[in-house]
Amino acid sequence: MLIFKKKIPVIPFGFTGIIISRIFLIPFIYLGWNYFIPILLFFFVLLLHDLFLNYTIKQKFVLSFIYSIVFNIGVLSWMFFIDYGIIALIYNTIIYFIFYFVTFLITQKFKSIFIIIFLFIIFEFCSNLTVYLFPWCNLGNALSNYPLLIQWYSITGPIGGTIWLLLISNYLLFLKNKIILVKLIILLIFPIIISTFIYRRNIENELIEKKIITFNPEKFITEENLKQENKFNLNEKLCFYVYNNLKNLKGNYTLIMPEVTIRGIYFPQFNKSLSANYLRKIISEDKCSNICIGATCYTDYNVYNSAILIDSLSSYIKVKKKLVPYVETLPNFLNKYMSRQIYSNTCIDSSLVINKIFKSNPIICYDAFYPFYFSRSCIDANYSIVISSEDFLKNNSIGINQYNNLLRLRCIENGKPLVKNSFKGNSMIINKHGLIENKSDKEWNIFTIKYNLNEKKTIFSKLIFYLNL
């Protein structure tokens, strides 16, 4: 255990100089998170440095506030340009301020890297259990640009990446002799060796190939159409448009349409609707095996953001469980004061049946950011289907890349590929190693996803399943 009891070093302009220097960390965080991870280590090293120093309570308060601001702006700068982005950024800054301040207070008494790592693990663990924390910013996600380096996430998940980055930063902070240098080199090399072993072990020659067709209704669903058309007529026209485009295409494929493609569906009667009949006609004529379509559904009690799975006989629903705070959900005590459409996630859906019948795991947008939930829901599936809407990202390349990188992590953690279909975004195939095999922003795409019928569960997915997280 390393004990660090130095007083605050003498810096020009005193504590004000320290604050100014920390503000200049923003470009380091931005560049490190999005492009070159070693740059991000400047942030981690200075954070640990300040946590170990004997600041006053007021100074710790100010530093917590500054670190929260620079970290969130550095990672989430793209939120300045999206709907409700400023609100989300302010909210997340407050959450991180509370976490940093608590960490400063605890390390005032226990100056140990292991205590700091423990606090980060608890915080990131909790972020996976509630929608009111934001796992997007968990430190281990910063390594998502390097999928071949982090194949060991199939053992530890992103929390392992958080531990690794904090340990590296700690050794850099105390890099004063050859012993620490050797430890640092071992710490850097060991995960690379593990990743190489996992990657080579999991290379397979005999894989099942499944044809996937994705449809992006961006040109069909416009603000003008949504205002002018009755939603039921628009649903029927869209489903007929899909049928008309695929009526001459033969073959055993799965058709995927993105989040909220059809709207206002009363699910108990959907199976008998004209929209469902158009789609099922594709299946009945042996043009595809099943269809996954994003929909807003309602029952007699609630409204849901959901995925509907259709085969030749019936329709099944999976409800979005991780709703976006403020945009899709609010705490119960605020609902009566806000005139907003709020979705529910309390429905007992058909997710288990879908996994067993279709052997696929439909994931609706925000659900993909939660590694525990994602892993638990794909335990019986051969591959995952992510349906999303990237309309909220406003074509911001940084936000889009971070989004896709999180999906790459989910593939590594569970050792299973996924297909993503997005409204106003890219559709893609990501293999089980987190590598993007195919990507397109066209209206119609024909992909091939490859998977192993007897894929062994990863250590990470087994832990999530047995701990029931």
Word description of this protein:
This protein is α/β, with parallel strands linked by helices and 469 residues long. The protein has two domains: 14-201, no CATH class; 208-467, Nitrilase/N-carbamoyl-D-aminoacid amidohydrolase (4-Layer Sandwich), CATH 3.60.110. Helices cover 46% and strands 17% of the residues. It is built from 17 helices and eleven strands. The protein has helices at residues 14-23, 26-34, 37-52, 57-76, 85-109, 113-127, 153-156, 158-173, 178-201, 223-228, 231-246, 274-284, 332-335, 351-358, 371-377, 397-414, 459-467, and strands at 208-215, 253-266, 290-298, 303-310, 315-319, 360-364, 383-389, 418-423, 427-430, 436-440, 444-451. The strands form two sheets. The protein has a six-stranded mixed beta sheet with strand order 5-4-3-2-1-11, sandwiched between helices. The chain has a five-stranded mixed beta sheet with strand order 6-7-8-9-10. Strand 9 and strand 10 form a beta hairpin. Helix 1 packs parallel to helix 4 (57-76) and helix 6 packs antiparallel against helix 8 (158-173). The chain is globular, with a radius of gyration of 24 Å. It starts with 13 loop residues before the first helix and ends with a helix. Residues 1-8 have low confidence and may be disordered.
How are the SSEs ordered, and which strands pair?
Layout: H1 14-23, H2 26-34, H3 37-52, H4 57-76, H5 85-109, H6 113-127, H7 153-156, H8 158-173, H9 178-201, E1 208-215, H10 223-228, H11 231-246, E2 253-266, H12 274-284, E3 290-298, E4 303-310, E5 315-319, H13 332-335, H14 351-358, E6 360-364, H15 371-377, E7 383-389, H16 397-414, E8 418-423, E9 427-430, E10 436-440, E11 444-451, H17 459-467
Parallel strand pairs: 1-2, 2-3, 6-7, 7-8
Antiparallel strand pairs: 1-11, 3-4, 4-5, 8-9, 9-10
Helix pairs in contact: 1-4, 2-3, 2-4, 3-8, 4-5, 5-6, 6-8, 8-9, 11-12
